[in-house]
Specification:
The protein is an all-alpha fold. It has 4 helices and no strands. It has one domain: MYOD Basic-Helix-Loop-Helix Domain, subunit B. Pfam families: HLH.
């Protein structure tokens, strides 16, 4: 079993070979550059993913009480405020 200490070993403990990597002809043939079509499709998928992510944060933001209500919050602030608000609501239910 791996311990946390083993996973968090200092960088100096790792032996890294910085030599040149030799690829066979077949490996070179398999490693093709991404085509413009592929890059474009990937960029489109990433844009859609980021838009969905930002939309989810906007929806979460609408559910959180702040003063003023239209105050701009960063994503980390939204998450922290959500954690605090959920804790508060749990406390209210327990009382």
């Amino acid at each position: 079993m791996v311990t946390v200490k083993e996973l968090c070993a200092p960088v100096s403990d790792y032996k890294v070979n910085l030599g040149v990597i030799q690829l066979s002809r077949e490996e070179k043939r398999r490693r093709r550059r991404a085509t413009a079509k592929y890059r474009s499709a990937h960029a489109t998928r990433e844009r859609i993913r980021v838009e969905a992510f930002n939309l989810a944060f906007a929806e979460l933001r609408k559910l959180l009480p702040t003063l003023p209500p239209d105050k701009k919050l960063s994503k980390i602030e939204i998450l922290r405020l959500a954690i605090c608000y959920i804790s508060y609501l749990n406390h209210v239910l327990d009382v």
